[in-house]
Design a protein that fits this description.
Layout: E1 3-7, E2 10-13, E3 18-25, E4 33-39, E5 46-52, E6 58-60, E7 68-73, E8 78-83, E9 92-99, E10 113-114, E11 118-123
Parallel strand pairs: 2-11
Antiparallel strand pairs: 1-3, 3-8, 4-5, 4-9, 5-6, 7-8, 9-10, 9-11
């Protein structure tokens, strides 16, 4: 059974940084894409970034481009999301998802496995 576990969330002041981690276990897929999404209260889940396990190619949402960096450590089955220059509008629950079809898009549609989420709160 595929499991994803996020960690690293917390409370940070505007302008600060956080690094989220997503540990993947139980996967038997030869390749996949890990996506980071976030959901604020009353809003739809928004794609933040995604990265291909095999190619390492990364894509970012418009609102985080230049501030967030996604990376992978295949030896540790872990994907990180380094977040810098955080803004109050970045406040949300952050989820990682696994897309076994490796489509490399920031829509939730192809992601069939999800973690439980980690809260990120940015104070002004």
């Amino acid at each position: 059974e595929v499991q994803l576990v996020e960690s690293g969330g917390g409370l940070v002041q505007a302008g600060g940084s956080l690094r989220l981690s997503c540990v993947i276990s139980g996967s038997t897929f030869d390749d996949y894409v890990i996506g980071w999404f976030r959901q604020a209260p009353g809003k739809e889940r928004e794609g933040v970034a995604c990265i291909s396990k095999s190619k390492g190619s990364a894509y970012y949402g418009h609102s985080v481009k230049g501030r967030f960096t996604v990376s992978r450590d295949n030896a540790k089955n872990t994907v990180h999301l380094q977040m810098t220059s955080l803004e109050p509008s970045d406040t949300a629950v952050y989820y990682c998802g696994l897309d076994p079809s490796s489509v490399e898009i920031l829509s939730t549609v192809p992601y069939t496995y999800w973690g439980q989420g980690t809260q990120v709160t940015v104070s002004s």
